[in-house]
Specification:
The complex is a heterodimer of chains A (246) and B (328). By secondary structure, chain A is an all-alpha fold. Chain A has 13 helices and no strands. The two termini of chain B are 27 Å apart. The chains are: A mainly alpha (246), B alpha/beta (328).
Chain lengths: 246, 328
């Protein structure tokens, strides 16, 4: 456990020692700031409903674009960097299992992801100061973001084990995330309600809207947690087999 | 501390290590000597648990590297090839991370880091970023990282590669002092290094051990015919006279206008130097140079490699290992 924490801590701190992290953080603040401004504009309209507006903070298109683009960039350095410098050998010859290494790196990246979202709490605080908002949906919306982020990062972690090149890792992650994300959006093409239900199970957009409305469905929790675990498991398997060629 | 039995590691395309057996005791520094690509790094990677062996066993402090991998790995301090470090970290930060990764906890982390900094003379740069360090300091930081948890076994892959002579001397001194209370296995392709640092040498070529012993032993084992070289002033015919001296087996003469060079192959234990001197005096020749050649470790190395090349056909049909055991 202590070894796991050593990896998480190093990984998380490493982000703040690279310029990429600050670019990602700054871009996130610009985008979310803009969204917040739109939100305020709509809130000050004559027939504004506070709950609806807050939902927008988490379900706008920006959030998706942002997740799909930045998560691969956050995860891309996890393994290629260590391979390039050779530190992967140090890591894998220390008395730590491959699973712990994967989990530790993932957790460090997830920590950075959460840090990235932390400033958005300011918007909630500002809104709360001026208009009555329900904290429940806000909390569940953050839970949704965390679950989505975890799944996307797990995919990114898996992609980064596959290659020695950071850019390739990012593109691979993106290429895996796009189908994962858009599969759930295909329901518009189907008329058969039973199939629509099936696809709805994968519809992340809808999941997120539910989370933002304050609906926490246990099926969704299972969906995200198990898929996250699945991709991390794959990453561990690949890491194990990749040692031969390192 | 390190026990290797019939270790073999095959890749789909080649055999990297073939049936290697050796051991390293506590307080012993063993040099793993061989040309690049001989299988040194592969052997070390198997010992450190980074690669699984195809067959054979390796034990570190009594722990099998496959079945008790974690215990074995915990007993090793490993310095991989080309000093792998995190450039963005500070020296002490990195050492603390390595210590925690190896299972050091609580306040011990700080004291172990301080000890490693002391030991590797890193005090001046302890709080500098690794990225900004010179190559020598980087190598020392990597070495400090390998020993920060005070392991009983140190495995160092080319610890002095790419350093300048002063830095090399420093690192060698460090390794020697470390070897007093530990088992150290270090690889190198630099011959003077094993002479300067190691108690024992394993010479490896194309995956197999072709020579083993102390540097002196290896030298005397392969010393063969002693050679004496003499240089006389002017163009003089000395071959026949030299050939008549006791203990001389063969004489090669190389005559030029300025000087005459002679190379005498002698019987073992024979030394015709004195007789050559008297001969020169008796004949009124000017003796410019008289040297008895000691076989350097370099020569030993080259000879061993040649032996191996002489019988390549015998070495070829090696991969007769059981086929069902695929490398996993």
């Amino acid at each position: 456990m202590r070894r796991f924490l050593a990896i998480v801590g190093r990984e998380w701190r490493a982000y703040f020692l690279s310029p990429l992290a600050y670019v990602i953080l700054a871009a996130f603040l610009v985008c979310s700031g803009w969204v917040f401004w739109i939100l305020l504009a709509s809130l000050s309209g004559p027939n504004a409903r506070a709950g609806q507006a807050l939902l927008y903070l988490f379900t706008n298109t920006f959030v998706w674009i942002y997740l799909l683009f930045t998560v691969p960039m956050i995860a891309m350095r996890l393994f290629p960097e260590e391979r390039k410098s050779g530190t992967i050998e140090v890591l894998l010859t220390s008395p730590v299992s491959e699973g712990t290494v994967v989990l530790g790196k993932f957790a460090g990246a997830f920590g950075f992801f959460l840090t990235m979202w932390a400033p958005s709490l300011v918007y909630v605080i500002i809104l709360r100061a001026h208009t009555p908002i329900d904290i429940g949906p806000v909390a569940s919306a953050y839970l949704g973001i965390a679950l989505l982020g975890a799944l996307f990062l797990a995919v990114g972690t898996f992609a980064s084990v596959l290659t020695k090149n950071q850019i390739v890792a990012a593109i691979l992650a993106f290429a895996m995330l796009i189908p994962l994300f858009s599969a759930g959006l295909l329901d518009v093409l189907l008329s058969d309600p039973s199939k629509t239900d099936l696809i709805g199970y994968f519809n992340m957009w809808e999941h997120m809207e539910d989370f933002a409305r304050g609906v926490v469905d246990s099926r969704r929790l299972v969906y995200y947690v198990s898929l996250t675990a699945f991709f991390l498991f794959l990453a561990t398997v690949v890491l194990n087999s990749k040692k031969e060629t390192a | 501390m390190i026990e290797v039995q019939n270790l073999t590691k095959t890749y789909p395309s080649q055999t990297a290590v073939a049936d290697v057996t050796f051991s390293v005791k506590e307080g012993e520094i063993v040099g793993f000597l061989g040309p690049n690509g001989a299988g040194k790094t592969t052997t070390m990677r198997v010992l450190t648990g980074f690669l699984p062996p195809t067959s054979g066993t390796a034990r570190i402090a009594g722990n099998d590297v496959v079945t008790r991998s974690k215990e074995a790995r915990a007993a090793i301090g490993y310095l991989p090839e080309s000093a792998a470090l995190y450039p963005e970290m500070r020296v002490t930060e990195y050492l603390a991370y390595r210590a925690r990764l190896e299972g050091v906890t609580g306040p011990a982390v700080k004291s172990r880091v301080a000890e490693a900094v002391d030991r590797c003379l890193l005090g001046e740069v302890a709080h500098r970023k690794i990225d900004n360090l010179s190559k020598g300091y980087r190598q020392r930081t990597a070495l400090a990282g390998a020993l920060v948890h005070q392991p009983p076994v140190l495995i160092l892959d080319e610890p002095t590669v790419g350093l300048d002579p002063m830095q090399i001397i420093k690192i060698r001194e460090m390794i020697r002092s470390l070897g007093r209370e530990r088992a150290v296995l270090l690889s190198t392709h630099i011959l003077p290094e094993v002479d300067a640092v190691c108690d024992r040498v394993l010479i490896i070529d194309r995956g197999r051990i072709v020579g083993e012993g102390t540097p002196q032993e290896l030298r005397s084992k392969l010393a063969g015919t002693p050679v004496v070289r003499a240089v006389f002033k002017g163009d003089v015919a000395v071959r026949d006279a030299l050939a008549g001296l006791s203990g001389v087996v063969a004489v090669e003469e190389e005559r030029g206008p300025g000087e005459t060079r002679a190379r005498l192959e002698c019987l073992p234990d024979a030394d015709p130097s004195e007789e050559i001197f008297h001969l020169a005096v008796a004949r009124g020749l000017v003796l410019r140079q008289l040297t008895r050649e000691a076989l350097s470790l370099e020569d030993v190395f080259v000879q061993l490699m040649r032996h191996d090349e002489a019988a390549p056909a015998a070495a070829e049909p090696e991969p007769a290992s059981p086929p069902p055991e695929a490398a996993s």
